[in-house]
Amino acid sequence: MDTPQPETTLPPEDRPAESAEQLAEELSELVRTGGDDDLSQYIEWLEPREAARAVCELSDEDEVRLLERLVPQQASDLLIDVPEVEAIEAVAALPPETSAAILQQMPSNKQADLVAALAEEDADAILAEMNPTEAIKLQQLASYDPDTAGGLMQTEVVAFRENSTVEQILERMRGDAGRFRQLDIQYAYVVARGRKLVGVLRLRDLLLADDTATAGELMIEDPIALDVETPIAELDEFFDDHAFLGVPVVGAEGRLLGVVTRAAVDEQGQSNAERDYRRAMGVVQEEIRTMPTLKRSRLRLSWLSVNILLNVVAASVIAGFQSTLEQVIALAVFLPIISDMSGCSGNQAVAVSMRELSLGLIEPRELWRVWRKEATVGVLNGLALGALLGAVGWWYAGNPWLGLVVAVALGANTVVAVLIGSSLPLILKARGVDPALASGPILTTVTDMCGFFLVLGLATLMLSYLA
Amino acid sequence: MDTPQPETTLPPEDRPAESAEQLAEELSELVRTGGDDDLSQYIEWLEPREAARAVCELSDEDEVRLLERLVPQQASDLLIDVPEVEAIEAVAALPPETSAAILQQMPSNKQADLVAALAEEDADAILAEMNPTEAIKLQQLASYDPDTAGGLMQTEVVAFRENSTVEQILERMRGDAGRFRQLDIQYAYVVARGRKLVGVLRLRDLLLADDTATAGELMIEDPIALDVETPIAELDEFFDDHAFLGVPVVGAEGRLLGVVTRAAVDEQGQSNAERDYRRAMGVVQEEIRTMPTLKRSRLRLSWLSVNILLNVVAASVIAGFQSTLEQVIALAVFLPIISDMSGCSGNQAVAVSMRELSLGLIEPRELWRVWRKEATVGVLNGLALGALLGAVGWWYAGNPWLGLVVAVALGANTVVAVLIGSSLPLILKARGVDPALASGPILTTVTDMCGFFLVLGLATLMLSYLA
User: Fold this and answer.
1) Which CATH number do you get for residue B107?
2) Partners of residue B281 in chain A, C-beta under 8 Å
């Protein structure tokens, strides 16, 4: 490209890249020896994501010292950029009055997320440092389920009374331009007594209106609004069906409580999908590698210890058939294969059910329909996989009967696996258990036991042909 | 709640819920016997998501007939609501002129997604039915990587010349109010010759301006703009750092090409996270259960067949130690446990690396740092899990040496698993292979082989204590 480009803000490549560890060392040095201004300028000089990485690399003490010495606005910007687990720890470790000052610089929904994630005593100490009215509001906001309109809404809304004129509205907006700019609003709301929502005002409609028109005349009446308890699945559906950037949230008596933006719903959707992935992989609570080693080990063991116990239970089925195994030792080669392949088939069915649930294509009560659809695929795939493994078994042991035993066992267990796998997300979801977390261990335990039982049970019945 | 609520649009509970299959039957009946208006009204009467579900349940022939009989706008709305795999099939199955008419009703980025996903001959046939200028634009748009600014941008932007006055701008907006309303815009762009981006105009600033001011006077000069090839990770970072709802996208010579919205980036982020989850679970291509059984079976087998071969390779290690197994049959109980637990530990490390990559906390080249952090956790967890399984082994076989063998094997293999698991996403990503898809099979094959080798190799060395 030959001609000058409009300014792009992404990584200015005019200074040498430093690793997060190097930046953290410089930052740590500054925390100990530099002035407040030096610190502030250093943070300002870094890209926001670089600053966040460097802060993650700091020791807990240095991080606290750094945040105490920055002005609350800058500390708040920094904490919004670091991973949430890190921000929660920092807010808990800071003196409550510092945390309160930093929190008050954040958007309301971010404040609420952090307060909700804190231990109760830490949250109480911070709330005690705030103005009581604000503290009560924040406590209320933090009490909503994060996957509902209440948990996702921001309370910063622009509301006018019905009889306000365009002139008055514009005057108020001009007088408060800084705040309006920061809110990045497209809509204002029109409210009656008791903050009851009665209309919505598109800012661009103000462009086309006379100065003397009132909000009541310009507003769209009976605006679409969602109840504060609307779950995220319905919010997602709502924004799929409506080209809105935000929707007002109302509580009892139609009282305007806040606004949920499309961006907030999409972001939560993304973070829930990422959580599903992590949990399916056995990362129960978010881990980042700058956490202390012992904590990381403990977080991972919480999952591994459950799994090893379930594994021992499943393997106990093998122990019950030890004499068969002694006579047909070749079976030992096939036990891990049958265990792993059944897990694979079952996991596919889990993932398809999770997807259909999130797309709203199935309801938890449609178990029967799901089973019908899975049974056919399970039989086809069971035949294919069974035939393949049967051929390997025949060739390996030089005995067609051993091939038959492993073929039938894997084929039948594939059907079992898809039936269980497909239904687990529906059953767990209906019971309020996270299906991404619990489906895997339950599935593999059941399919392992069933698979071991099938192959060793069949082998025992056919022992005279195998030994 | 006692007082009337503002209208909420979510499921009107005033008619009995019907299953998607019942709705599809009614719809299928209407496709065969009803008039075009009946069909259109029936679709209108359904909630968008209900309509989408019912359409998925229709046979391919009925779906094509339905879409042919609706007006293009309604058919387009319907196709935007169904899962993308279903929409792609429908667009491919319809006569090209019908598909072209339906596509032209969609937003530009949706059109491009569908065209990019079609087989080349299907796409060409549809493009041939469009106005050549539009077809070339669409083809260009479809050629961008979906995870870049070009793939995510919409080309519908509002642009004015520098010397346009507020009066002219407002006049143009009033004259074209319908279109502006549909775009739901907050910003307009100011361009010079050759559509070179020179400024951005906030619509709300028009509120505060004189009629005679020009776009050039009101605009923010040297606006932030991103190159058309900016990858999604940088877009994500950009919107984290800036409170914008959208950012203009420019090509060579600063030419304004479109705008990427925060919502588009968040939605793509969510759909990528969901795809990672599905792929990690072995669902390589999206499957929904209304697809033909044979196709579903084939999609799943494409993954399972690779895995069964890898499993056979891994299990061949067991075959090499058959005489050891014959003498210490108890080991057969522990092989599946060691295989499964190593997979669990490795998967955790994969997920933590995937997370850190997406948070921008690690770069693919930081392998050494990741290994250092994993080695310590691997040793701790290896000790814990090894001790646990060792105790089970001792108790089960009544032989402390057998306990020692399984303890050492699982402990060492845990370290191997976290080292491999943590590095796979970094290595695969650097090579352009999808880490969510490929990490699992590579990890489990290597850890299975290594685990089997460790436990059976150790047992062979210590055979005199075990047999």
Assistant:
1) 1.25.60.10
2) 280, 347-348, 350-351
CA B92 and chain centroid, separation: 22
Helices (H), A320-467: 322-327, 331-358, 367-397, 400-430, 435-461, 463-466
pLDDT band (50, 70, 90) for residue A181: low
Q: Does some domain include residue A288?
A: no
DSSP string, B381-402: HHHHHHHHHHHHHHHHHT-HHH
Between helices B96-103 and B72-81, what is the axis angle to 10°?
A: 80
What distance, in Å, lies between the first and last C-alpha atoms of chain A?
75
Contact: A7, B223; criterion CB under 8 Å: yes
Which pair of structure tokens corresponds to residue A187?
């809509």
Which CATH number characterizes residue A412's domain?
A: 1.10.357.20
Whether B11 has a pLDDT exceeding 50, the answer reads: no
Let me know whether A455 and A325 are in one domain: yes
**Test mutation, A218, A226, A270, A293, chain B, max B CBs within 10 A:** A270
Q: Which of A143, A169, A196 is the last residue of a domain?
A: A143
Is residue B323 situated within a structural domain? yes
pLDDT digits 0-9 by tens, B296-350: 999 999 999 999 999 999 999 999 999 999 999 999 999 999 999 999 999 999 9
Q: B148 vs chain A: nearest CA distance in angstroms? A: 14
Domain membership flag for residue B349:
yes
Do B175 and B119 lie in one domain? The reply is no
- How many structural domains does chain A have? 3
- Whether residues B299 and B208 fall in one domain: no
Confidence (pTM) = 0.85
Mean pLDDT of B380-407: 97
Q: How far apart are CA A440 and CA A280, in angstroms?
A: 7
Tens-digit pLDDT profile for residues A243-281: 788 899 999 999 999 999 888 898 898 889 999 999 999
The whole domain housing B170 covers: 159-261
Which CATH number does the domain housing residue A210 bear? 3.10.580.10
Strand order across the beta sheet in which A226-227 lies: A226-227, A246-250, A256-261
- In the prediction, which pLDDT does B203 show? 74
Per-residue b or e along A412-428, where b marks 16 or more CB atoms closer than 10 Å to that residue's CB: bbbbbbbbbbbbbbbbb
Q: What is the token pair recorded at B307?
A: 């895995």
Residues B222, B228, B229, B235, CA torsion sign: positive
Which pLDDT score, from 0 to 100, does residue A69 have?
A: 93
A85, A288 contact by CB (below 8 A): yes
pLDDT of residue B144 exceeding 80, the answer is yes
Contact residues, B window 29-58, toward A, CB-based 8 Å cutoff: 47-49, 53, 56
Which of A253, A322, A360 is nearest residue B49 as measured by Cβ atoms? A360
Give bridge partners of residue B199 from the DSSP assignment.
Answer: B190, B221
**Could you tell me the CA-to-CA distances from A350 to A21, A324, A439, B233, B408 in Å, in that order?**
40, 33, 7, 29, 34
Query: What is the pLDDT confidence band of residue B8, given thresholds at 50, 70 and 90?
Result: very low
Chain B residues close to A248, C-beta within 8 Å:
6
DSSP structure string for A175-220: HTHHHHHHHT-SEEEEEEGGGEEEEEEEHHHHHTS-TT-BHHHHSE
